[in-house]
Design goal:
Chain lengths: 233, 258
C-alpha cells in the first residue's frame, strides 16, 4: 500500500496545471505496507502487533476493502465484519433507532434482519430510554456501545477487530469481550489488533509483528509475544 | 457487469436506506416538513410569473404552467447534480472507515432528489387543472422525457462526482455552469419570441432544454419533438457510459483525495 506524501495536497485545478507546467508534480512515496505475504486459514485467530505507525490499521483496512492495494492481490473468502472504527456511517442527525437500520445496511444487512434484531441491539447497548434521541446528543461511550451492538449481531466468517475491546467503561468492556469470545467459539476467523499482550494471548493462537510496514515475525502467539517484548524494550 | 449486479444486489438495502435518509433529513426540523417540496415550487412560480410576466408582457393564462414545468425540471437537475458532485466528500467519514460500493453515494443522492421531484409534480397537476390545462392522451407520454431526465442526471452526476472529488474547484465552476444552463433552458421565456430563429440552435443543443421542451409538449397536449428526444437520450447514454468508465477507473483513488 503506497501513499503519496506530497508536501501540499494538490486539489485545485489551477495548482495542478501550474505544477504540471513547472514540472513540480513530484510526490514523496511512502509505503505504509510492503512485501506482506500472509495467509490466514479458516478458524485461525491472528493477533497483529506493532508499534504506532507500523501499518496495523492499514493492513486491516486493506483486508476489509477500504483501501485497494497499490500492488499485489488480496483474496477473502466469506463475509467480513469489520470492526475497525465502530459506527462508520452513523448519521448525527438521525436518532439511535434510525441509525440501527442505517449502520446495519452499511454492513450489508437487510432491513428485515435489522427489524428482527432490533430489540436485541437495544438491550445489549443499554440505550432503551435514548433510542429515539438524535445521535448528536449521545456521549461518545453511548455511540460506541450502539456501534458495537449493531456490528456483532451476526456471526461473520471473518472478524476484524482494531482495538475495539478497549472501548467503553470497565463493565461494558467485560461484556463486549465476552460477546467476542462467544463469537470466536463458533469457529470465526479473527484478525485482532491490540497493544495489550495479555488480550492477544487470551484471544489469539497465532500472531504477527509489523515494523515500518514490513512483516518481521510470524508464528505461534507465545513465540511472537516474546519477540515483541524484546522489541519494545 | 455481472459483478456489478451482484454487488448492487448485496447492498440494495443500503441504497434504500441512503435514499430514505436523504428524504427524511432534507426537511427535518422544519414545521411543514415534506410539504415544502410542494410549497417551494409554487411560491417560486408565483414570483417568476409576476416578474417575467410583467417584464416580458406575457399575459396568457397558462404562462404559470409553462414556467412551473420548466423550473421544476431545472431545479431537479441543478440540485441532483450538485448533490452528486459533493457526495463523495460529504461521505468521507464513511469512505475512510468501511467498504461500500462508491457509486452508492452519488446515485442515492440523485434518486432521493428525483423522488422529491416526483412528489412536487403534484403541484404542477394542481396548477394545470386550475388554469385550464387539462390532461390529454399525450399527458401519459410525459413519462418518456422524465425517464430521459433521470438518465441524463445519472450520467452527468457520475462524471461530476468523479471529477469533483479530485478537483474541488469544480464545485464553484459548476455553479456558474448551472447558471448558463438555466438561461439556455427557456424556463421563463418563450424561446421563439426572444431569440430570432438564427440563435435557436443554441437551445436545441442543450439536452436539458430538449427534455423540458418535450415535457412541456406532453403537458400542453402536443406531440413530442422526436429529434430532441433522440438527441437528449443519446447525450444521456453517452454521459452514463463516460461517467461509469471514469468513475470505475478512479474510484480507488477517491480515498486519497478526500
Amino acid at each position: 500500500m503506497c501513499f503519496n506524501l506530497s508536501k501540499e495536497k494538490v486539489d485545485s485545478l489551477k495548482e495542478y496545471f501550474i505544477k504540471l507546467v513547472k514540472k513540480e508534480l513530484h510526490y514523496n512515496e511512502f509505503w505504509a505496507l510492503k512485501d506482506i505475504n500472509l495467509t490466514v486459514k479458516k478458524g485461525q485467530r491472528l493477533g497483529v502487533l506493532g508499534l504506532n505507525g507500523a501499518g496495523k490499521s492499514t493492513l486491516l483496512k486493506v483486508i476489509s476493502g477500504v483501501f485497494r492495494p497499490t500492488e499485489g492481490t488480496l483474496k477473502v473468502n466469506g463475509v467480513i465484519a469489520p470492526m475497525i472504527e465502530l459506527g462508520a456511517g452513523f448519521d448525527m442527525q438521525y436518532t439511535g433507532a434510525e441509525n440501527i437500520y442505517l449502520y446495519g445496511a452499511v454492513l450489508g444487512h437487510s432491513r428485515k434482519l435489522m427489524e428482527e434484531k432490533f430489540d436485541e441491539i437495544v438491550e445489549f447497548s443499554e440505550l432503551k430510554e435514548f433510542i429515539d434521541v438524535p445521535l448528536k446528543n449521545y456521549s461518545s461511550g453511548m455511540k460506541v456501545r450502539l456501534g458495537f451492538a449493531i456490528a456483532t449481531i451476526v456471526n461473520p466468517d471473518v472478524l476484524i477487530l482494531d482495538e475495539v475491546l478497549s472501548v467503553g467503561d470497565a463493565k461494558f468492556k467485560k461484556k463486549s469481550e465476552k460477546k467476542i469470545l462467544s463469537m470466536i467459539e463458533g469457529g470465526t476467523t479473527v484478525l485482532f489488533v491490540s497493544h495489550n499482550a495479555e488480550q492477544i494471548r487470551r484471544i489469539c493462537d497465532t500472531a504477527i509483528i509489523l515494523e515500518h510496514g514490513r512483516l518481521i515475525a510470524d508464528g505461534p502467539v507465545d513465540e511472537v509475544l516474546d519477540i515483541y517484548k524484546k522489541l519494545s524494550e | 457487469m455481472k459483478k456489478f449486479v451482484a454487488e448492487f444486489y448485496r447492498y440494495r438495502s443500503l441504497f434504500a436506506e441512503l435514499v430514505r435518509k436523504g428524504i427524511k433529513l432534507k426537511y427535518r426540523r422544519s414545521y411543514l416538513g415534506i410539504l415544502w417540496s410542494l410549497i417551494e415550487p409554487l411560491l417560486t412560480m408565483i414570483v417568476l410569473t409576476l416578474v417575467f410576466g410583467t417584464l416580458l408582457g406575457y399575459h396568457s393564462k397558462d404562462f404559470p404552467v409553462y414556467i412551473l414545468s420548466g423550473r421544476l425540471i431545472y431545479s431537479l437537475f441543478s440540485q441532483a447534480t450538485t448533490a452528486a458532485l459533493k457526495s463523495i466528500r460529504q461521505n468521507q467519514a464513511m469512505i475512510k472507515k468501511v467498504y461500500v460500493p462508491k457509486y452508492m453515494y452519488p446515485l442515492s443522492y440523485i434518486v432521493f432528489n428525483y423522488v422529491l421531484f416526483l412528489i412536487s409534480l403534484v403541484v404542477l397537476c394542481g396548477v394545470a387543472l386550475v388554469l385550464g390545462v387539462y390532461p390529454t392522451v399525450y399527458t401519459l407520454l410525459a413519462i418518456v422525457p422524465l425517464f430521459v431526465l433521470l438518465l441524463l442526471i445519472i450520467g452527468v452526476g457520475l462524471i461530476l462526482s468523479c471529477l469533483g472529488t479530485m478537483f474541488r474547484d469544480l464545485e464553484y465552476l459548476w455553479n456558474v455552469g448551472l447558471m448558463l444552463i438555466m438561461y439556455m433552458c427557456a424556463i421563463f421565456y418563450y424561446p421563439d419570441k426572444i431569440l430570432d430563429s438564427s440563435h435557436y440552435w443554441l437551445l436545441s443543443y442543450n439536452p436539458l432544454f430538449c427534455v423540458i421542451d418535450n415535457f412541456r409538449s406532453c403537458v400542453f397536449g402536443q406531440a413530442m419533438n422526436i429529434h430532441e428526444l433522440i438527441y437528449a437520450s443519446s447525450f444521456a447514454l453517452v454521459c452514463i457510459i463516460v461517467g461509469a468508465f471514469i468513475f470505475n477507473k478512479k474510484q480507488d483513488k477517491f480515498i486519497l483525495y478526500v
